[in-house]
Each structure stands twice: as C-alpha cells, then as structure tokens.
C-alpha cells in the first residue's frame, strides 16, 4: 500500500505467469499446427508487453488503469454491479460489470492481491457463492 498526502492507493504487483505460460504453449502447439502455434505465441507476447506496460491502482473510490504514468481508464466502484475471478485453481481472467458495460482483463497482476483489493473496495458487488 502506498499513500500520499491526499489519497491512499494500492498498486497491484505484476504477474508474468500467464503470459509466459501462453508463450511457452506456442512452440508446443507449433508441432501440430504451425499457424496455431505462431498465433498463440504472439498472443503470449502481447500479454507480456501488456503486463510490462499496464498498472492497476485501487484508490478509495475507483479502479484506475495506467499505461506508464498516464491514466487511461477510471472505473468508479459506485458503478460496479458484479465482479468475479474465473477459474479459481489458476486464476486467468478477471471480469467486472458496471452499470453500462462489462470488462474482461487477463490476470497479469498478482491474483491474491487483486482479490484482496476487490474484497476491500467493492465487496457489495461480489458474486454470491
């Protein structure tokens, strides 16, 4: 948790696990189908670049997504209706629904830290289990 004089926020740590696994699948799939292997490998590379470039910041009022030091998206918790992390044994996808839209993000951030921040900041929008 990092704090400044005006606001408290949490930046999630990056997790390279999913991009590296997807990139590793590319050469294995290429033995059966070169195009499929290349496509999966390129997708893994894309995820790796996104992991390096993007940052999720949980503030007191919103989830902010940064590219470097530039804020690119702002999602106020007040507009969240539901959130879920898919495939709990190995979290791979984060889904959340706002009043007017839905969003899917690959888990390119620390999954346990993501869950802790979600439960802290928007527990009312969590799925009922």
Comma- or semicolon-separated keywords:
five-stranded antiparallel β-sheet; PH-domain like; 8 strands; three-stranded antiparallel β-sheet; 129 residues
Task: Present the secondary structure layout.
Elements: E1 2-3, E2 8-11, H1 17-30, H2 34-53, E3 54-59, E4 62-67, E5 70-76, E6 80-86, E7 93-98, E8 102-106, H3 111-121
Antiparallel strand pairs: 1-2, 2-3, 3-4, 4-5, 6-7, 7-8
Describe this structure in words.
It is built from three helices and eight strands, in the order ββααββββββα. By secondary structure, the chain is an alpha+beta fold. The chain has one domain (2-125): Roll (PH-domain like), CATH 2.30.29. A five-stranded antiparallel β-sheet has the order 1-2-3-4-5. A hairpin with a 3-residue loop joins strand 7 and strand 8. Helix 1 (17-30) packs antiparallel against helix 2.
- The separation of the N and C termini measures 28 Å
Q: Rg, please? A: 16 Å
Across the major sheet, the strand order is 1-2-3-4-5
Please outline the major beta sheet.
5 strands, antiparallel
**Number of DSSP helical runs:** 3
Q: What string, H for helix and E for strand, traces the elements in order?
A: EEHHEEEEEEH
Helix vs. strand class: alpha+beta
**Which fold name fills CATH's third level, the topology?**
PH-domain like
CATH first level: which class? Answer: Mainly Beta
Number of domains: 1
Q: What is the molecular shape?
A: elongated
